[in-house]
């Protein structure tokens, strides 16, 4: 009798060593009784394409892609979902039928994470997104689908303008210098820059002008309670950390890699928090 093949997937990034994705996916694999594993590939920036080729040849079923490779992931794919194509970035690569499939599930993660705090998306919302990289593009894609308008603020304005042009009337580009006026009257603010990530400068903005009921979300989850979220709370805003987004984007990723939805009922947020505590915050 031959043993059933073991499915292996992973996350690739530079850096990726902070990632909690292995904790989440391996817990789901274990709970679902699936023979397989989810690994971490922290690589130098220049080695992305070669490493993906190597892992594909080794028989991996797919990869989550994190900073700074999401645009490059889309570029090396041979087939794309509409979400990845329109976002111009992929956080999931799946190797099947001789193809490299690209998808973007970051937007699903943002909607899931923010929904409760913002009171749902059944009404049109206006949000400020800080940053115009791959994660911002994924978020814009999903938020546009639920009728939201986005004010996009980025250090390099040209990148924000490219996204605004791609996504049309619902998205407008602004300069960093337009803060805090751009926060006036909006329903939520999302940090989609890599500022605040461990080892980088914190993100500091003036929250004056932002309605007090508006939630502030940070995509960064290492550290979980960023200086940005602490300042937002001090200014009276509800906050949403990056872990719920991570779990939200991981669910459809798991289905891509392992062929089934992750099992219900497992508190992966608690497991991820325990892992963060074990690592010392
Ligand atoms: P990315 O494509 O590398 O984009 C980085 C963004 O950060 C760009 O807009 C960049 O602006 C901006 N930035 C970098 N350094 C800056 C600085 N010193 N001052 C102002 N802006 C700066 O990265 P990404 O893939 O979009 O990821 C962005 C963040 O989201 C990362 O922290 C990532 O860990 C996090 N993330 C979290 C989740 C989750 O599930 N929680 C999912 C995806 C991403 P320029 O265009 O001017 O360079």
CA gyration radius, whole angstroms: 18 Å
How would you spell out the order of helices and strands? EHEHEHEHEEHEHEHEEEHEHH
User: Helix- and strand-based class?
Assistant: alpha/beta
Write down the oligomeric state.
Answer: single chain
Report the count of strand segments: 12
Write down the overall geometry: globular
Mean pLDDT: 94
Strand-residue proportion: 15-25%
Largest sheet: 6 strands, mixed
Notable characteristics:
281 residues; globular; alpha/beta; single chain; 10 helices
Structure notes:
This protein has ten helices and twelve strands. Helix 1 packs across helix 10 and helix 5 crosses helix 9. It is globular and about 55 Å long. The longest helix has 17 residues. With 281 residues, the protein is an alpha/beta fold. The strands form two sheets. A six-stranded mixed beta sheet has the order 2-1-3-5-6-4, with helices on both faces. A six-stranded parallel beta sheet has the order 9-8-7-10-11-12. The structure holds NADP nicotinamide-adenine-dinucleotide phosphate (NAP). The site of NADP nicotinamide-adenine-dinucleotide phosphate (NAP) has 28 residues, from helix 5, helix 6 and helix 9.
């Amino acid at each position: 009798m031959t043993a059933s093949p073991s499915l292996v997937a992973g996350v690739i990034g530079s850096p990726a060593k902070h990632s909690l994705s292995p904790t989440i996916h391996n817990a789901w694999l274990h709970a679902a009784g699936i023979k397989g594993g989810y690994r971490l590939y922290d690589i130098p920036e220049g080695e992305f394409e070669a490493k993906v080729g190597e892992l594909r040849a080794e028989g991996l079923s797919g990869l989550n892609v994190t900073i700074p490779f999401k645009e490059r992931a889309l570029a090396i794919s041979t087939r794309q979902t509409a979400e990845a194509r329109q976002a111009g970035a992929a956080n999931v690569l799946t190797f099947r039928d001789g193809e490299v499939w690209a998808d973007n599930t970051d937007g699903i993660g943002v909607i899931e994470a923010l929904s409760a705090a913002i009171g749902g998306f059944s009404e049109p919302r206006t949000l400020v997104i800080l940053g115009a990289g791959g994660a911002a593009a994924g978020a814009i894609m999903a938020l546009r689908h639920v009728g939201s308008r986005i004010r996009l603020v980025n250090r390099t304005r040209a990148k924000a303008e490219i996204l605004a042009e791609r996504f049309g009337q619902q998205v407008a580009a602004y300069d960093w210098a337009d803060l805090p006026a751009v926060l006036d009257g909006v329903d939520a603010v999302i940090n989609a820059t890599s500022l605040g990530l461990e080892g980088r400068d914190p993100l500091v903005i003036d929250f004056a002008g932002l309605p007090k009921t508006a939630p502030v979300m940070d995509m960064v989850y290492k550290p979980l309670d960023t200086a940005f979220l602490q300042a937002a709370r001090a200014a009276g805003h509800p906050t949403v950390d990056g872990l719920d987004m991570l779990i939200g984007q991981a669910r459809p990723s798991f289905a891509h890699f392992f062929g089934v939805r992750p099992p219900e009922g497992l508190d992966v947020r608690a497991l991820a928090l325990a892992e963060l505590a074990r690592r010392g915050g």
